[in-house]
Amino acid sequence: MKQLSLSAAVVLLLYSSQPALSQNTTGVQICPQLSCDVKNTKLDENTCFTLVGQGPITLISGQMCYNEDTAKPSDIPKVCPFDLQSGNYGWLDEGLQAQTALDKLGGEKEDKSQIKYRKVKEYCVSVSAYSQLLNPGRDCGADHQCITQKCKEGQCFGLDENENCYQHSDCGPGFYCRMAINWPFRALCAGQKGAYEQCQNDYECKNEMYCWYASAADRQKNTTKCLPLYSQDDGTIFGWGKVSTATGNGVVTLSDYQQNGKYCASGLAYQMSDYQAKCTSMQTVTYKNVTLQAPYNCTPTDTQTKCHINFAVDDSDATYTSTGNRAYVEVPCKCSLGGSKATQGFCASVIGSSFYSDAVANLANVLSSSNCHTLDRSNMRAQKDQCGIGVASDNWRMAVDKMFNVTYWPYVQVSNAYNCISMFFSDSYYNLIRKNAMLIGATSVGLVVGIGALAVSL
Ligand SMILES: *[C@@H]1O[C@H](CO)[C@@H](O)[C@H](O)[C@H]1NC(C)=O
Ligand SMILES: *[C@@H]1O[C@H](CO)[C@@H](O)[C@H](O)[C@H]1NC(C)=O
Ligand SMILES: *[C@@H]1O[C@H](CO)[C@@H](O)[C@H](O)[C@H]1NC(C)=O
Ligand SMILES: *[C@@H]1O[C@H](CO)[C@@H](O)[C@H](O)[C@H]1NC(C)=O
Fold first, then answer.
1. pTM (2 decimals)?
2. Which of 80, 156, 232, 404 is the most exposed, fewest CB within 10 Å of its CB?
3. Which stretch of 11-15, 189-193, 407-411 has the lowest confidence by average pLDDT?
């Protein structure tokens, strides 16, 4: 953590010598400033995120909740609960920054707000807030931390196979609560399903799988199966489905590509026929018809021009994919939030690139070593426990850091923005690694057990 606080000092210096923000011709600031410098942001000790300005947003402030280097031994570790992925927080939307005079721009005013029903302030919380209502399998030190109210030998206890359950969280790790399809509809804990077994949703599958269409025939029958996440080479054909509500012939959204792409090592699949998907990779990123090189620089003040992520498409599929955006996806150009380079921007997604495939491979690696509860599949904090891959090796950190970098691609390209968001984004390594002092005893016992188990399984 020394490194982070050192760079925090650098951020401080950079921001204090920062020139005036760039403004557009009518004086509207398009890219806001991001700052983690308390002198500048005037955040009080317990606030870890806030916004200044509503339309446009002019300043996004963040702060580290707990500094390992300056903390006193008696200080309780704290983390910032700020979670950009949740959609619960106000945040920059470049397309809406210019919406000061809402009436002039037409449409529903409230849809044009970056802060509607959103939190614009967040407070530091003790890390013990993340040691409550734990699912079975999580490390615990006391009964009350577990959702089942039972901590047994350092792990939250859950029911065994074939025991009566009411919901997934009643069952132990490795199980989900299955309702029988026949009278009298008993609900029993059942083992998570393996590859290509039929499923209704992700929770029924093993942690390193998701529930999706394995083939065109399955898609036509609406049958879903447990598919190993991020496992298939380019060219693999399976069933295509949509998760977005976007309609129109050939209209596909980034979320559709992400969902289908979960079966592919590249993280990307295109629609090759009405019911078929094919794994592929990013071929180029173009902007104004010019091919960009990583990290895909663009102009965020020009909200009309999007980045085109073009896929490698087989010739035999070219006719089908020429309709709509079946062969590419458009993503916005986002502000880097990088201090003095305020108008610098980067394309919002890198789906299908080598960066993306590397990140998802690291994530899949963590999940395939996970014996955590099915409800904890996407909880990286849980994967740190003895039910997960743990932190004895670098694997967990690699998955956390690489996923962070592709998720927040535009913000990690300029070091002062990267350092600042790492301080207050709850899914940063810095925030995820914080642990409850009260649990340290239990965790170290867990680690020893975990390593023992690993050695046996090897
Ligand atoms: C500046 O912002 C205004 C919105 O208030 C917008 O109408 C105008 O097109 C912007 N100018 C440029 C050059 O982006
Ligand atoms: C599959 O689901 C869609 C909509 O969810 C429905 O319209 C269609 O009839 C279903 N097909 C089968 C074979 O059940
Ligand atoms: C990009 O190229 C296409 C076809 O070659 C053309 O229709 C379009 O106008 C070009 N766009 C820009 C921004 O140059
Ligand atoms: C994530 O991005 C930062 C900033 O660009 C970089 O320093 C770091 O090495 C990256 N982490 C990984 C694991 O690639």
1. 0.86
2. 232
3. 11-15
Interstrand relation of 78-79 and 328-331 (parallel, antiparallel or unpaired): unpaired
User: What atom in ligand 1 is closest to the CA of residue 303?
Assistant: 14
Could you tell me the residue ranges of all domains in the chain? 2-128+400-457, 143-191, 232-347
Angle, vertex CA 341, rays to CA 15 and CA 352, nearest 5: 120
Give the Cα separation of 38 and 41 in Å (integer). Answer: 5
Please tell me the distance between residue 226's alpha carbon and the centre of ligand 2 in angstroms. Answer: 19
Amino acid at 206: K
Buried b / exposed e along 321-349 (16+ C-beta atoms within 10 A): beeebbbbbebbbbbbbbbebbbbbbbbb
Residue 237: exposure state from Cβ atoms within 10 A (0-12, 13-18, ≥19):
middle
Does 17 contact ligand 2 (Cβ within 6 A)? no
Mean model confidence pLDDT for the chain: 87
| Cβ burial, residue 225 (10 Å; 0-12/13-18/19+) | buried
| Cα–Cα distance measured from residue 105 to residue 191, given in angstroms and rounded to the nearest whole number | 54
